Amino acid sequence: MILTDSLATFGRYCLFVRRVFALPDRFKIFLKRTVQEVSKLGLDSIPLVIIISLFIGAVIAIQMQLNISSPLIPAYSVGLATREIILLEFSNSILCLILAGKVGSNIASEIGTMRVTEQIDALEIMGVNSANFLVLPKIVAFVGFMPVLVVLCMGTSLLGGYLVAVVTDIITESRYLYGLQTMFIDWYVWYSLIKSLVFGFIIASVSSFFGYYVKGGALQVGKASTDAVVTSSVFILLFDVILTKLLLQ
After folding, report:
1. Residue 159 CB: number of other CB atoms within 10 A?
2. Are 170 and 227 within 8 A, CB to CB?
3. Nearest residue to 55 via CA among 196, 194, 158, 142
4. Confidence at residue 23, expressed as pLDDT on a 0 to 100 scale
5. Cα 207 from Cα 209, distance rounded (Å)
6. Around 184, how many Cα atoms within 13 Å sit in the side-chain half-sphere?
């Protein structure tokens, strides 16, 4: 029963995505809405990304120093390990799990409210492809802005670790900076960006799907928002494993 319901839901999701990726009727309106969504979904997420990244980078640096306190391990390993953790996992997977809660719930509740207040039905009556009109600008805007958030997260996290070296005496600034530059692999940056594009699409499309098919009232909108965040998080973790295997093998 659960498997059947899951397959049915996945089929509805695929049909929904097919409707979303149709050619917009008016590109001028589509571009205008996309710019608005960039501001709402992308720019408004910057303060959250900066705050979280700054503290997480500092915590990672502290924990690395506490766990790499052996005379057999070079002191610069703290900066190296901090950089690898941030590039490989935090700046894409963990960041997107956090954004799934903020951006995903926002998208699901907005579209769900439009559904229960019959605004989507009004668009359909006017002959507008409501899925394309409402959802495509959100997906394009969020996926397009994700690399900016990821790069910002990388820089701020590494800065957080550097501030630990400046403020405390657990590691010197020169050793931390030397560790950041040691054995740098530029593919890790591209790997992080590729993962973030996939995760951004998952967040935007899954959240829109749950909001679009809400039935009922305000209570169901809240439930759809919760389901969107949970489902997006599960798929992010699933594709994290798959992409890591494909891109780093």
Report:
1. 15
2. no
3. 158
4. 85
5. 5
6. 13
The amino acid at residue 54 is L
Read off the pLDDT of residues 140-195 as tens digits, 9 standing for 90 and up. 999 999 999 999 999 999 999 889 888 887 888 888 888 888 888 889 999 999 99
Whether the CB-CB separation of 192 and 170 falls below 8 Å is answered with: no
State how far the Cα of 174 lies from the Cα of 77, in Å rounded to an integer.
12
- CA–CA gap between residue 212 and residue 107 (Å, rounded): 10
Question: Which residues have C-beta within 8 Å of that of residue 160, sequence separation ≥ 6?
Answer: 53, 54, 55, 56, 57, 58, 59, 60, 61
Determine the Cα–Cα distance for residues 184 and 186; give it in Å rounded to an integer: 6
Round to whole Å and give the CA distance between 150 and 91: 6
Residue type, 150: V
